[in-house]
Amino acid sequence: MRRLLGSVRARATLGATLVVAVALVAAGAAVLLSLRSNLLGEAGTQAERSAREVAAELAVGTPYGELSLDVDDRPVQVVDEDGRLVAASEDLERISGTGVDAVKPAPAAPGDDGDGDDGDDVADGADGGGSDDDPDGSDDSGEPLEAGGIGERTTVSDGSATIDGDPEDYRFAAVPVQTPAGDGLTVYAGAPLSAEHGAVDTALTVMLIGFPLLLAVVGWVTWLVTGRALRPVEGIRREMAAITASEDLARRVPVPGTHDEVARLASTTNETLAALETSVERQRSFVADASHELRSPIASLRTQLEVAAAHPELLDLDGAVEDTVRLQRLAADLLLLARLDAGERPAEGRVGLAALAREEAAGRAGVSVRCEDAVAVAGSRGQLGRVLANLLDNAARHARSAVEVSVRRDGDRAVVAVADDGEGVPAADRERIFERFVRLDTARSRDDGGAGLGLAIARDVAVRHGGTLTVHDAPAGGALFELRLPCP
Question: Can you list the pairs that 379-383 forms with residues at least 24 positions away whose Cβ atoms lie under 8 Å?
């Protein structure tokens, strides 16, 4: 069960089903309450209509014996001011909810003409509790009714009655009336609630049967839809698992043609795989090139040491020192590249480029410096000094006679330019020279040309500082390297 709920498909299905269930319960309760309220209101209206029909007959002086009390087999009571039953439906056997439990009016006393003038007849079983209306023949506003008047306001209540052996729930309406003789009466009439109960029970039954079926349909449809939506994700997962197992970074995950979030995920995953493949290939090439570059000075140094061990008088000390220095520089370059590849952030500090350029140019033959002293950037002084040193070393190897270093500000950028008067860099090779272990002059000896890492390191440091390093044609006809860095 826990594993099943760990599935996105299962959680989505469960969540959708729960939301729909809550909505259905709330809507069903609202429908039942509204239906019951409307049906109760309709029953109250029917009861009031029946009560007012009887009250209208009393208001014109109709005798109790001639009242229309048995219409539609509804319970009707006529109660006087003392709470005595003076008239009732003929088949009424039991009643509750009106305040008067009597169902048969008391026999008329001698001298009573049956027109409602005698108020001394006490109905059998009357509880004397009175009605909800005022017993003095007034309406609910407290104003006495005139002779032949009917109260404007109706009081409703719920109860039950048994008519001709058939018990049922009713809504009762009480209407006050004043006879022409001045007797204050209250007419109670009921309307059955069977329709309300039947409708509510039917609606509740439909909901109890229909809601579970609807929830089952919602759950089934959600399960199918989420399964279809997540099918490409499962395909991506399987392919990534296969790539991990085979270590074949040339493979790519399938991209669905839906142009949705899943398709964008697949595209991003393929872009990540491509970048990872490029990085791995670059690392392999770097290791191979580094091994190749290290082999020459190590082999030369070993040969000299072996010769010196056998014939000390033949030891080329200067050559051994030169190979050692070259090996040390190559190791330092490789270490710096490794740190840059690992994402090492440059130390934060304010670096004056004019002073840095003069410092790196000092002691170099044929190098002139032209600077604006106020130009400064944020970054690592050591790494930026390494960039200038590498650019000056590269320019010195290719210049005929002169190298010029200039520092200026161009908008929000600081520009450091190193120009030489050599042969320049062909346009087709201006990006390739920044690749690692690349030397355009393959015939040049390694001792003279270096390992081909200087410009690669310079560009990587420039990028880490948020800048750029590019090469153009110099005014003197050689190469012009421009380092652009953001000013703080």
Answer: 379/346, 379/347, 379/348, 379/349, 379/351, 379/465, 379/485, 380/346, 380/347, 380/349, 380/351, 380/465, 381/349, 381/351, 381/356, 382/347, 383/346, 383/461, 383/464, 383/465
